[in-house]
Design goal:
Length: about 160
């Protein structure tokens, strides 16, 4: 699996290089009980054509409560294959001690989590849950949304 720096070098000569050793150091020696996983879709130009591409991100929280970027990789989509490759990449680099995975409800991700972290529990990200709920909420309920924002129940 190519990392972001390798893909950038191919597509944009002279692109900013990421020193993976500096950014992702000590992954093999630290336990990360909590990891946040998400994918974001970005448009990029490749060979004169614009395509959507997903960027998969893992952020870990270690035993002392510090957050750390564990990995970033491009996937074709947020599907089983892309998430499997990304999670395998993290495991091969030594990710261990995962007790809880927090993510959206991307079907490909939820389906493969047990293959890589069988003892970890999964929790749906509250921000994603609210966003999904609001997408299907009637416009007539907008005042209720505003009230929830004002009371601090929901923050973006």
């Amino acid at each position: 699996m190519e990392n972001v720096a390798q893909k950038n070098e191919k597509s944009i000569p002279g692109a900013i290089k990421i020193d993976e050793k500096e950014v992702f150091d000590h992954l093999d020696t630290l336990v990360h009980p909590y990891i946040f996983l998400d994918g974001v879709y970005l448009k990029r130009s490749w060979g004169g054509e614009v395509h959507e591409s997903s960027v998969l991100v893992a952020i870990g929280v270690n035993s002392e409560g510090y957050r750390k970027i564990l990995g970033v990789a491009e996937g074709s989509r947020e599907d089983k294959e892309s998430w499997s490759n990304f999670l395998r990449y993290l495991k091969e680099r030594g990710l261990k001690g995962v007790k809880l995975v927090i993510s959206d409800k991307a079907a490909g991700l939820v389906d493969v989590l047990g293959d890589f972290f069988p003892k970890a529990q999964w929790q749906r990200c509250v921000v994603h849950w609210y966003r999904n709920a609001f997408e299907i909420t009637s416009v007539t309920k907008a005042p209720h949304r505003t009230l929830m924002y004002d009371q601090g129940v929901i923050q973006y």
